[in-house]
Amino acid sequence: MTDIAFHFNLSDKLAYACRLLRKAIRSGVRVAVAGREAEVAELDRALWVFDSVEFLPHVRWPLPEGPVGRRLAAHTPVWLAPNPSDVPHREVLVNLGGGVPAAYDTFARLIELVGLEERDRLDARRRWMHYRSCGHAVESIDAGQRAKQP
Q1: N or C terminus of the chain: which is more exposed, having fewer CB within 10 Å?
Q2: What is the rounded distance in angstroms from the CA atom of residue 9 to the CA atom of residue 45?
Q3: How far apart are CA 49 and CA 56, in angstroms?
Q4: Mean pLDDT over the full length of the chain
Q5: CA–CA separation, 85 vs 128, rounded Å?
């Protein structure tokens, strides 16, 4: 069964996502990122400028067909995929928000990112209730509290 964790109270969800993806890349983990198209596009831009000395390799999914697409798929650890149901791995799925991501239950781990905006929090509550109704144990991580700790 998919491990699910909600990281909530994120004052800057995109910066948090960039740090989370950098950590995953450094750990050798492959990640798909789902969310509303606009949020995925914003994250795509943020990953290009997040760190001035380190590039966070990522691609938009679906990839172009042919040899270029196959090479990218084989060597890129992060896929930005508004619909993650057909990405070529099932390790970690990060959801930037909106609805329950397609095929979330085929991934080993799902990380939900929740900002401070009311719409984001309401959407997250609906997803939380959906996962619980499907029998998932859901972990919650208060990123706001972590930031206050020494």
Answers
A1: C
A2: 22
A3: 9
A4: 90
A5: 20
> What would the two tokens of residue 147 be?
């930031």
pTM for this structure? 0.91
Polymer length of the chain: 150
Angle among Cα 143, 147, 150 to the nearest 5 degrees reads: 135
Cβ atoms of 80 and 44 within 8 Å: the answer is: yes
Residue range 43-72, pLDDT digits in tens: 999 999 988 888 888 988 877 677 766 677
Residue 133 to residue 59: CA distance in whole angstroms? 33
Q: Quickly tell me which residue has 């270029």 as its tokens.
A: 68
Phi and psi at 40, nearest 5°, equal: -65, -40
CB-CB contact of 93 with 61 (8 Å):
no
How far apart CA 91 and CA 88 sit, in angstroms, is: 10
Which residue pairs from 109-112 have beta carbons closer than 8 angstroms and sit at least 24 positions apart in sequence? Answer: 109/2, 109/3, 109/4, 109/5, 110/2, 110/3, 110/4, 110/5, 111/4, 111/5, 111/7, 111/20, 112/4, 112/5, 112/6, 112/7
Region 141-148: mean pLDDT is: 75
